[in-house]
Design a protein that fits this description.
The protein has helices at about 45-55, 75-85, 90-105, 120-130, 170-180, 210-225, and strands spanning about 5-10, 15-20, 30-35, 60, 110-115, 135-140, 155-165, 185-190. The protein is α/β, with parallel strands linked by helices.
Length: about 230
Amino acid sequence: MPGRDITYTTRDGENFTGYMAEPEGGGKVPGIVLITAIFGIDDEMKELTDAWAEDGFIVSVPDIFWRVMPGPTADMDKAFARYEAFDAEQGYKDVEDLMGDLRAHPRCNGRIGVLGFCFGGRYAQYAAALLGADAAGAFHGTLIDRELSPMPPADCRVSFHFGAEDPVVPMDVVDQIGAAYANHSNAQIVAHEGCGHNFSMPYKDGYHAGVAATSRQAVLETFNTMK
């Protein structure tokens, strides 16, 4: 089933847009709130979203930067400018609302995973720790290290993947995240050799097909526990 553009309404009655994809059929399935990289909901992100829907999830992708500069952009200066201007505290509220919105969807079985690409990693961690997400995944997620207290409950499954040569999320940061999860029996914190940032994104410099497939399979297995 092809994805479609949708409109969300915040707790304060404001409207903004996003993208939603759902699997074929009519049964209830788990939900994924997908938080994009700084480039927003471009064609690449829509293709990645559709693939998760094909795996049996209803996927909600907000235009997370709608307050700063809405829409997708390939302009690095604009992308980084809105990243710098983004209000993290407001982002937490939006993610909470998005999770509630998706849980209430008639196709959702009530279980929600949060998946972050790059910028979205922080919000996947926060959702797992403080917003009641049932699972969290991230590919080369940034600023996760700022959200390590409190930690997610032991029954929340987590699968975070990093490039061992990523200058954006260097190994000392990955090690810090790994140490925080050392006693969490349902967490995978993996640094993949031979790749850097954006390894999961096929239209971006840094894409690594092998690592993209391996890390995606691990996150898929994590999210499949919600079925």
